[in-house]
Fold:
Amino acid sequence: MEPVLIVLVVLVVVAFIALIKTIQVIPQASAAIVERFGRYTRTLNAGLNIVVPFIDRVRNRIDLREQVVPFPPQPVITQDNLVVNIDTVIYYQVTDPRAATYEVASYIQAIEQLTVTTLRNIIGSMDLESTLTSREVINAGLRGVLDEATGKWGIRVNRVELKAIEPPTSIQDSMEKQMRADRDKRAAILTAEGQRQAQILKAEGEKQAEVLKAEGEAQAAVLRADGEAAAIRTVFEAIHDGDADQKLLAYQYLQTLPELAKGDSNKLWIIPSEVGDALKGLGGAFNGLTGNGGANGGGTVTAPSVPPAAPAATQVPLDPAAGPRPVDVEKGAARPRVDPTREYRKIDPE
Structure:
């Protein structure tokens, strides 16, 4: 009984192992290559698959999802003989598991080496400035070459990105100085433009202020002229309505004479020749009022209004045609220059 039991146990174990090898479960987004006696038979897709145990062999499982592979920095020489280190990142996806298994020994290593050689070819035809500012051009060139070369390997390169471009340290220092100088230049230009704009606005403001001031002064002058004209018109109408005679005008004329003597700097007072006529008319008016006046308005006249700045005794020529006579005013006493050939009348202001 014991040999039979051992045989049964062995058969059960073999059957279990055969069952396990017969049923193959492939995860989603994966594929498996099946070989029969070392030869490619088929590709197992996601799900439950049945294979012949001990005859079919699953060689490897391939991930069909998009993969991201970063490559270490690679030294590349530019057209102007500068060495730069460039980090690249490749985004690829396996589209044909059979080609990826049998067409290339290691597609990861093949993609890396192809990326390095292609990158050196592209960067070698560009200077440093173009390399730093033409990332999109470099990415497009790398993607085109890699996609064409890896197509027969069952690989599709979706994107190629330059992770970093590092020029030499000395070049970095020079670039920083240049960038700092450019920023300082732009700042100076912006400052100058701001000051220029401020000066322009200030000048325009001052111009508008001057214009408005001139317009205001012109309007004020017009209004003053209108006011003076209205005042003169009112005075003229009042004089015309009041029927002013020569006597009133002579009295007003005499009232303005003390204004001529006001001021500390007055050393010489010129009396106009018209004063005599004014005094004659004024004397005649008062004589007419008191009944003591003669026909010629002679005699001593006591003025109702005394000019405060008039001298104590002033000799006035009676002849109006003789013109004004200078009066020397010194130490409060008026000493007129008397012509002995003319007749004078003494006027006492008190």
